[in-house]
Automatic annotation (TrEMBL):
The species this protein was found in: Flavobacterium nackdongense
Function field: NDH-1 shuttles electrons from NADH, via FMN and iron-sulfur (Fe-S) centers, to quinones in the respiratory chain. The immediate electron acceptor for the enzyme in this species is believed to be a menaquinone. Couples the redox reaction to proton translocation (for every two electrons transferred, four hydrogen ions are translocated across the cytoplasmic membrane), and thus conserves the redox energy in a proton gradient.
Domain (NADH:ubiquinone oxidoreductase 30kDa subunit): residue spans on this chain: 33-154
Catalytic reaction annotation: a quinone + NADH + 5 H(+)(in) = a quinol + NAD(+) + 4 H(+)(out)
Keyword terms, alphabetized: Cell membrane, Membrane, NAD, Quinone, Translocase, Transport
Family, as annotated: Belongs to the complex I 30 kDa subunit family.
UniProt name for this protein: NADH-quinone oxidoreductase subunit C
Length: 173
């Protein structure tokens, strides 16, 4: 029996109502948005439902949208996989930019530990209830979160590189 995206959508809407929305099929990945305060309930439902069976958390990452309204400035994106039906889903939860935080999934998927640490390290998104939220790739002394778009991509004052060696010349700009 093939798990159809309409079945996933129907079950989610039936159970969570207006807390799940913006359903979309993007190539082979079914995506939707959720309200951030319901993320653990929704992920637990997707994992434990006898038909849905999304038992594998593939990835967690953050996205910074500095041009969005403050209540949608950051997003946490979750990718899950149902191995039985080879079905993938993407869940996006927008969070407030002045205090970016969302509940941890480490109690549901222990493997979320490192993914949440990486997201915190690069974006400063706090995962409430995480057992050890600390830097994982950047130096402990670092005070910023470098993937936020408030930081320039390159240091304009660098003198140790020549744009010609990177395929960038004045005519390319």
């Amino acid at each position: 029996m093939s798990l159809e995206t309409t079945a996933i959508q129907d079950k989610l809407v039936e159970t969570f109502g207006e807390n799940v929305f913006h359903f979309n099929q993007e190539k082979d990945v079914f995506s939707f948005e959720v309200t951030a305060d319901k993320i653990t309930a929704i992920v637990l439902f997707l994992k434990n439902d006898s038909e849905l069976r999304f038992h594998f958390l593939t990835d967690i990452c953050g996205v910074h949208y500095p041009d969005n309204p403050l209540d949608r400035e950051f997003a946490v994106v979750y990718h899950m996989h149902n191995w039985y039906e080879n079905k993938r889903i993407k869940i996006k939860a927008f969070i407030n930019g002045s205090r970016p935080e969302i509940k941890t999934l480490t109690t549901i998927f222990p493997g979320a530990n490192w993914m949440e640490r990486e997201t915190w390290d690069f974006y400063g998104i706090n995962f409430i209830g995480h057992p050890n939220l600390k830097r994982i790739l950047n130096m402990d002394e670092m005070v910023s979160h470098p993937m936020r778009k408030e930081f320039p991509m390159e240091d304009g004052g660098r003198t140790d590189k020549d744009d010609r060696f990177f395929g960038r010349t004045q005519s390319n700009r």
